[in-house]
């Protein structure tokens, strides 16, 4: 009797398994693959060093405080007429305390990250997000000017404060 009761409960409960796997919707991915792009340079090259200099840990004593200010320029040239605008996205390892910031490489300073900003130095560009869009003009250069700054994310421990970011130009 117990065995048939257990088997009956098992069979009855398995009837609800399908409800957990219900069909909820469809996602259609669309896009275009193009061979057209602009020539891209970052501060005159493709692997660009940006020197944030030497900063006192006292300058970063409060979480969110920034120090140093280094310019970074990405230039688009020889853009095909079919491309009308572009944005820049920065990617890299995000900081554990603030995922919008770029983490420092291991083995150096802690409690600090690198923030990327628009040219005004105040408008932060979170990692993985678009910069301000700029129009492209065929046969002309389009300059994207950015600022990098150290940002305090916790108690600062001194050491090398290096980070690595990749950038992608997205055409609209």
UniProtKB/TrEMBL annotation:
GO biological process: cell adhesion involved in single-species biofilm formation
Gene3D superfamilies assigned: Fimbrial-type adhesion domain
Origin: domain of life: Bacteria
Keyword Signal among UniProt keywords: yes
Signal peptide coordinates: 1-22
SUPFAM superfamilies referenced in this protein's UniProt entry, alphabetically: Bacterial adhesins (SSF49401)
Name of the protein in question: Type-1 fimbrial protein, A chain
Taxonomic path: Bacteria, Pseudomonadati, Pseudomonadota, Gammaproteobacteria, Pseudomonadales
């Amino acid at each position: 009797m117990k065995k048939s009761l257990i088997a009956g409960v098992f069979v009855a409960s398995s009837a609800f398994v399908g409800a957990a796997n219900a069909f909820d919707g469809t996602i259609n991915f669309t896009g275009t693959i193009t061979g057209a792009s602009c020539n891209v340079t970052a501060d005159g090259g493709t692997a660009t060093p940006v020197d944030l200099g030497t900063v006192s840990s006292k300058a970063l004593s409060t979480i969110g405080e920034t120090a140093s200010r280094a310019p970074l320029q990405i230039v688009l040239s020889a853009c095909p007429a079919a491309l009308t605008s572009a944005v820049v996205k920065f990617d890299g390892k995000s900081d554990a305390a603030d995922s919008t910031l770029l983490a420092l490489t291991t083995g150096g300073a802690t409690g600090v990250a690198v923030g990327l900003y628009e040219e005004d130095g105040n408008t932060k560009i979170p990692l993985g997000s678009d910069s301000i869009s700029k129009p492209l003009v065929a046969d002309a250069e389009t300059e994207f000017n950015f600022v990098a700054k150290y940002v305090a994310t916790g108690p600062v421990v001194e050491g090398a404060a290096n980070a690595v970011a990749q950038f992608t130009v997205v055409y609209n």
